[in-house]
Design brief:
By secondary structure, the chain is mainly beta. The protein has two helices and 13 strands. The strands form two sheets. Strands 1, 4, 7, 8, 9, 11 and 13 form a seven-stranded antiparallel sheet that branches.
C-alpha cells in the first residue's frame, strides 16, 4: 500500500478554469480537526500577457460558512516554469498574515502550507473550535491565467491509516 495515499487527504479547491483567480476568490473551507497541516497547491498556466500577480493569504475561519475570518501566517514556495513545464524551486519562505504576492507571469506552481496550530491560535470567535481554514486570493495584476487549486491535508495527532479518509469539506 502507498503511505502517501493512505496518510494524506486530497480535496479539490478549484477545478482548472480560465481566469481562475480573477478578482477576489476563496477556496472551500476545510476542517483541520483531524489534520496537523494543510498544503494548497495552486497550479497556474501561462499568463496571456506575462504580468499576472496574485496576493495569497490564509484565513482561519469560525465555521464552515464563515462570518469571522482572521488571516494567519503560513509557509510558501513558488516553483517556476516556462510555457508549460518547469521545476525551478524558489525558497521556502514564511509569510506574515498579510500574505505575499506571487511572481509576475504564469506557468508556475505555488505551494501554500498552513499549520493547524496557527489556525487554532487565531481569534475568530468560534463556538466550534478553531480548526477551519481557507485560501484567499486577490488578483494583483489582471492577466487571465488558467488556474487550479488542490488541498492536501495530513499530519498531526488523530491521523490513522484508513482506506477511505473522512471528508474535510463539511
Amino acid at each position: 500500500m502507498s503511505l502517501m495515499l493512505e496518510n494524506l487527504k486530497f480535496a479539490m479547491g478549484l477545478s482548472p478554469i480560465a481566469d481562475g483567480l480573477d478578482g477576489t476568490k476563496r477556496s472551500d473551507v476545510y476542517s483541520l480537526r483531524a489534520h496537523g497541516r494543510i498544503l494548497f497547491v495552486v497550479a497556474m498556466g501561462v499568463a496571456t500577457g506575462g504580468t499576472a500577480t496574485t496576493v495569497l493569504t490564509v484565513n482561519a475561519c469560525d465555521n464552515v460558512t464563515p462570518s469571522n475570518r482572521t488571516t494567519i501566517p503560513f509557509w510558501y514556495r513558488e516553483i517556476i516554469g516556462t510555457t508549460n513545464v518547469g521545476d525551478t524551486d524558489g525558497a521556502i519562505t514564511r509569510a506574515a498574515a498579510a500574505g505575499f504576492t506571487t511572481t509576475a507571469g504564469g506557468a508556475k506552481i505555488v505551494l501554500v502550507e498552513a499549520d493547524a496550530k496557527d489556525v487554532a491560535a487565531a481569534s475568530v470567535n468560534s463556538t466550534y473550535g478553531n480548526h477551519f481554514v481557507e485560501l484567499n486570493s486577490v488578483e494583483g495584476v489582471n492577466d487571465p491565467v488558467v488556474t487550479s487549486i488542490v488541498a492536501i491535508l495530513g499530519g498531526g495527532p488523530n491521523r490513522y491509516a484508513k482506506q477511505i479518509n473522512a471528508t474535510v469539506i463539511v
